[in-house]
Each structure stands twice: as structure tokens, then as C-alpha cells.
Amino acid sequence: MTSDSPSDLAPEFFAEMVESVGVGVGIYGADGRYVHVNQAYADLFDTTPSELIGKPIWEVVVTIEAGGFDQYWESFENGDTREAETKHSYNGHEVPVATVTTQRSIEETPHHFGTIKDISVRKAREQEIERQNERLENFASIVSHDLRNPLNVAQGYIDMLQADINRDELQLVDNALDRMGVLITELLELAQSNREIGERNAIPLTTVAEDAWRHVDTTEAELTLPESNPQIMADESRLQQLFENLFRNAIEHGGADVHVTVETTANGFDIADDGPGIPPDKRDRVFETGYTTEGKGTGFGLSIVQQIVAGHGWDIQITEAADGGAKFVITDVDIDV
Fold first, then answer.
1. Contact, 87 vs 62, CB < 8 A?
2. Mapping DSSP to helix (H, G, I), strand (E, B) and coil, where does residue 324 land?
């Protein structure tokens, strides 16, 4: 442990420095002991500033140990600023905080000037959202499993009957069962789409698009891909899900023989089709959960697409394709063209 003593500057000097700061402030020297804290910081622990002054930082900051303080201190250079989220604990109060720590020399003596913001409310909200998402995903998985069993039984009997009887009514039932299967799949996808985007890697765009095309019923449809195969930084499984949903949307609205085109741009990519397109007055609504145009589709696919786009920090807009169909323009993408 270094033997430097706390600064002998007048407390009034530090008080003046932090008077207008609206968050907690703690200042300590090379020995790791607080030489000044403001009332906002002391209030986090239901104590007084005088109670904290002179206390070593490792008795408050749970991620710093006494034996490791010197290394932590020496890792800073004058002017260095670091941000972190951690926990501060004192007087029986443990508080999640966001900190900004800067090393500054005051009258040629280095000090760490730290601002400390209580993030308890945000952390509690994040934890509650995470719990809700887990419950929703578990519920959707259970419902999906329980619905698929009787659906598969019904589909089996329909297949048997269609082999012996040629009736239009049986085809209608078959179509209804197919729609139920898609609905179950997309409900599960929607429940899972709120999860965070996973690890991002450099993903070949056209390779993912080809994989997605193979997972969609595209027997009569046609896909045109760019000649190059640029890479984008993305969660591969979520990116493939995005393509699958946009391809499925094109087929649902453009017909089984729809022509879909994928193109790259300087800051993203487009997916366009030659179907009927989406009227301008409906483009703002198609991403709403459960909304569908002309009674087609389930209304969940494009909502999932928007959540995947937002999770990556991208942007998506709908315009008119050259053939009059729908064109989904995805921008703000880290793409190597």
C-alpha cells in the first residue's frame, strides 16, 4: 500500500468543485481514502459526508480489494476517465451505481474524482422485464407443445381422409390446420424475440439469406441475391429469422410465384418483392403485433422482424419496390460491401 497521505487542501475547495453536481461525488487520493464526498453520495447510505471521509474506497466499492488498490491506482494516467457499473456498500446499504472516474492533478497532487449515480430503479426494472420475458417464453413454449400434439393428430387424420376422399371441404380444413401451425410457430417466435441479441460475428449476408430461403416453403418462388457476399456484424440465428419472416411475408402477400430480391447498400440491405405492395397509409402499422393487411398472415412476422432490427441497433423502413411490390430497407448496419 502506498504511504501518500490525503490531500491537505481545504475542504471548502472540494465543496466548491462539487456544489453544482447533481449526483454523488467522491474524491480520494493515492492512499485510497476519501478526502471529500458530497451529501448526495452520503445519502445513498443514510449517513453523513464526515462519516465517509477518511474511509478507504475498498470498504465501500465491492469490486475493489485492499490488496489490489495500488495496481488499480497505477493503471490510471492523468486525465484518464473510466465508466463502470458496480455496487457500493456501506452502513448496511448496498446500492447499484453507475460511476465515472477521472484522474486529475490538483496542485500537482493526483486525485480520483468520481461521480456516482444510483441506478437502483433501472436495475430493478431490467430484472423485472427479464423475469417477465422468461415467464412469457416458458408459457409460450408450454402452449406451443400442448397445441402441437392435438394439431398433429388432426393433421394425420386429414391426410388419411384426403387419401380416400376428394372433397374441397377437407382441403379447407387442411389449410386451416396449416395456418394454426404457422400461428403457433410465430407466437413462440414472438415470445422469444424480446430476448437480447446474442454474440455478433461477421456473417456472410447471402449465405444466411440462402439458408433462410431453404427454411421457407418457396417451391414456385424465385430469389435473386447480390453477386457479392458482403459480411455484416450480426447475431446469425436472429438474422436468419429476419430473412425467413420477410421471405414468408412476401409469399403470403405476393403469391407462391413471387420474385424476391435481396440487394446491399452502403449502410445496409434491402428485401423487395414484385407483389401488390403495401399502401403508404398502412406502412406505419404493419409492424404492430397482430396487425395484418387484407386478412393475410398472422400479423406476428413483421413485429418479430422489427424487434430483431431494433435489437441490433438498426433501422427499418418500408418503401415501394421497382415492380410496385413491398421493399423493406434496413439501414445503420455495419456492412462490408
1. yes
2. coil
DSSP string over 275-321: SS---GGGTTTTTSTT--STT-S-S-HHHHHHHHHHHHT-EEEEEE-
As a whole number of angstroms, the distance between CA 1 and CA 32 comes to 9
Residues of the chain with CATH 1.10.287.130: 121-195
CA-CA distances (angstroms) from residue 238 to 131, 132, 306? 21, 21, 11
Secondary structure, 3-state, 180-218: HHHHHHHHHHHHHCCCCCCCCEEEEHHHHHHHHHHCCCC
**How far from the centroid of its chain's Cα atoms is residue 195's Cα?**
7
Report the topology of domain 121-195.
Helix Hairpins (1.10.287)
pTM of the full structure: 0.53
| Best CATH choice for the domain 197-337 from the list 3.40.50.300, 3.40.1010.10, 3.30.565.10, 3.30.460.10 | 3.30.565.10
Q: Is 300 exposed, middle or buried (0-12, 13-18, 19+ CB in 10 A)?
A: buried
247 and 218 Cβ atoms separated by less than 8 Å: yes
Residue 155 one-letter amino acid = Q
What are 220's three cell numbers? Answer: 414456385
> How do residues 275-329 score in pLDDT, each as one tens digit?
999 999 888 888 875 556 555 555 678 888 998 999 899 999 999 999 999 999 9
* Gyration radius (Cα) of the chain, Å: 29
> In the prediction, which pLDDT does 6 show?
43
CB of 333 closer than 8 Å to CB of 325: no
SS3 assignment, position 115: strand
* Bridge-based pairing state of the strands 259-265 and 222-224: parallel
327 exposed, middle or buried (CB, 10 Å; 0-12, 13-18, 19+)? buried
Say which CATH topology domain 11-118 has: Beta-Lactamase (3.30.450)
What are the beta bridge partners of residue 41?
Answer: none
pLDDT band with cut points at 50, 70 and 90 for residue 330: very high
